[in-house]
Amino acid sequence: MRGAAVVVPCAALAETLAFFTDELAFRVEVIFPADDPAVAEIAGYGVRLRLERAAADPEPAPVLRLACADLAPGEESVVVAPNGLRVERVPADPPLELPPLEEAFVHTRLADDSAFGAGRAGMLYRDLVPGRLGGRFVASHIRIPGGGAVPDYVHHHAVHFQTIYCLRGWVRVVYQDQGPPFVLQAGDCVLQPPGIRHRVLESSPGLEVVELGSPAEHATRVDHALELPTGELRPERDFGGQRFVRHVAADAAWSAWRLAGFEARDTGIAAATDGLATVRVARVSRAPARVPARAGTSHDAELCFLFVTDGTATLEVEGRSSRPLASGDALVVPAGVPHAFRDPSADFELLEVALPADFTTRPA
Which of 3, 86, 209, 223 has most Cβ atoms within 10 angstroms of its Cβ? Predict the structure, then answer.
């Protein structure tokens, strides 16, 4: 394999070649025949074009998008080559944009919506927040039914926030500067800071994880150059203002949660994100003297996402009818809306992801 080039027909080859070399700084790699050029291969911006003389320009006109390191945000421009090719010049590293939050009450039930669509690297995805709160957040229930080696690659995400919670089974993963590969077991979770390179290596049959990220639409970028694991162990390394977190459920301590009758384990994500977000797992209190899990509360968080990892309960939300909850159900409760979990089963357990970490609560 020697390389590849995109063929671009040109009725006026000389003028088109001059446009790319003079205006866009492409470099000529091949041109022939010398006495009457009919083909010119040019390279620039990581792309190779084969300009071929033709009777007519292409119809419809193709589009070439160039990521330019010398452009600042907002300096996008469009130029048109003599053969009609539209060239869009955009910044190589545009700033991450967070869409405005559109608050909504969300309840997705696994019993009603168990559809999993094909996603990246052979994984199956179920959308837990279909409206995505205006594009500000995405939450997914992800499965790998067959298990074994995962056809993944070293990559990273352009995100504001992203966390993954292992729900069922196990998955072996590796992260940049975080030592050798390790296994996430059910109940464990990680914080994936912006830009940290990582790779999913293998999983148990029937693996299930819950992933939440912001913004909803964000790029997954492949890193072909970096090999994992790296030779360094840097647990305190800063990635976009955040540190990597691996929370191991078996080592966690439990304390009181924001709802009476429950206790929770904190994952350490609030500290690692400098207060951007908190991730907790809450369950019915194991202490027999605790107040029954009946009292409700409201919050002032931007996001309060809840996923039922086990058991059953009845959700009561002010202004709405009561609704049963079961394992696999997901909730978003807007700020200021009183809610409570009535008659939880002894094994009832919730994953809670909230932004910011220091949100306040009030009794209902």
Answer: 209
What's the mean pLDDT in 292-313?
A: 88
Question: What radius of gyration, in Å, describes the C-alpha atoms of the chain?
Answer: 26
Classified as helix, coil or strand, 269 is helix
Mean pLDDT for all residues in the chain: 92
The predicted model scores a pTM of: 0.86
Same domain flag for 77 and 133? no
Q: What is the domain extent for residue 76? A: 6-91
Tokens of 325: 């909850």
- Shared domain for 129 and 196, answered yes or no, is yes
Q: Residues 142-164: pLDDT tens digits?
A: 999 998 999 999 999 999 999 99
Q: Which of 329, 328, 325 is nearest to 341 (CA)?
A: 325
Do 112 and 33 belong together in one domain?
no
Give me the DSSP letters along 221-236.
EE-SS--SS-S-B-TT
- CATH code of the domain containing 147: 2.60.120.10
pLDDT bracket for residue 93 (50, 70, 90): confident
What span, in angstroms and rounded, lies between the C-alpha atoms of 297 and 258?
A: 8
| Number of CB atoms found within 10 A of residue 358's CB | 11
Tell me, what CATH number does 64's domain have? 3.10.180.10
Contact 180, 174 (CB under 8 A): yes
pLDDT for the residue 294: 52
